[in-house]
Queue: 2 jobs
Job 1
Amino acid sequence: MDDIRATMTAAASGMRAQTMRMRIAAENVANANSTAETPGGDPYRRRIPMLEENRARDGVVGVRVTGAMDDPSAFKREYNPSHPAADTDGYVKLPNVDSLAEMMDLREATRAYEANLNMIENARAMTTRALDLLRR
């Protein structure tokens, strides 16, 4: 039964990590068209989740999100001198968020979440089957 518990612990940590990945990607998509509040200011900067290996007390290896870092890639620039956030040259900085890439990341995180959920469901089914066999 320890192996099944270890499987469920690792899968649960994966589900928590994927949930955080989805939240960060959704935040990026939500801010994909935001601009700075002041002329020439920086707009929203894309965030990237930071994942690392996590060892539980009983030695089970899982994963956890340690935070999110800002994507250092350059902002897009668009010429629009009438925009309130335009700089002195008439350019507006736009977020460095690629909505298509974020949607692909959301899809990947969703599939990884589902895979971890399937692991938990299979571990529960194995436990139930083992208990049924012991009752006989």
Note: The chain has one domain: 2-135.
Job 2
Amino acid sequence: MQVKSKSGRVFKLPTPEENLAINAGIDADPDTYELNKAEFAQLKRLPGQRGRQKSPTKVQVSMRVSPEVVNYFKSKGTGWQTRMDEALKEYIAEHA
């Protein structure tokens, strides 16, 4: 069976036999288990993971920045755009 996402992407769903094999593999692995609905509802995105903002708190822009600036912020790991935003806010506060 196939399903189509809102974006038009087509996904092939596993057959009942494949589902049984998947569930048997989950049951056989002592390090994992299938989450129940309550556990699944408690999951949260980790910092740095992409997702839609609930309310638009930032404005998306396109700008040219020197490679040194981008490389510096990227070298510090995930969240580099947020750190760059914070640095710009600090500059504004100091030069207001």
Note: The mean pLDDT is 88.
